Amino acid sequence: MLRPQDGAALGPALSARERDCLAHLASGLRTQQIADRLAIKPVTVEMHIRNAREKLGANTREQALAKAISRGLLTL
């Protein structure tokens, strides 16, 4: 599973929850599965992923993951 990084990155900082949701998304989990693991509602997972996409300047979840990895926000 990809792990969230605590280090500084380029652009607006992602919240810990945004990084958590992206890390679970990168490991192949679906929205409901992420919600179950984090004990939050699926709509909240979607909100965190959407906020992360906006902060990263990504149009899709896949782009957000690629940008987060390239900026060092997620590591293997």
Give structural notes:
The protein has 76 residues and is mainly α. The chain has a single domain, classed as Arc Repressor Mutant, subunit A. It has a two-stranded antiparallel ribbon with strand order 1-2. Helix 1 packs across helix 3, helix 1 packs across helix 4 and helix 3 packs across helix 4. The longest helix is centred in the middle third of the chain and has 15 residues. The chain is globular. The mean pLDDT is 90. GO terms for molecular function: DNA binding.
Attribute tags:
76 residues; globular; Arc Repressor Mutant, subunit A; mainly alpha; two-stranded antiparallel ribbon; 58% helix
Helix and strand layout, with pairings?
Elements: E1 3-4, H1 16-26, H2 31-38, H3 42-56, H4 61-70, E2 74-75
Antiparallel strand pairs: 1-2
Helix pairs in contact: 1-3, 1-4, 2-3, 3-4
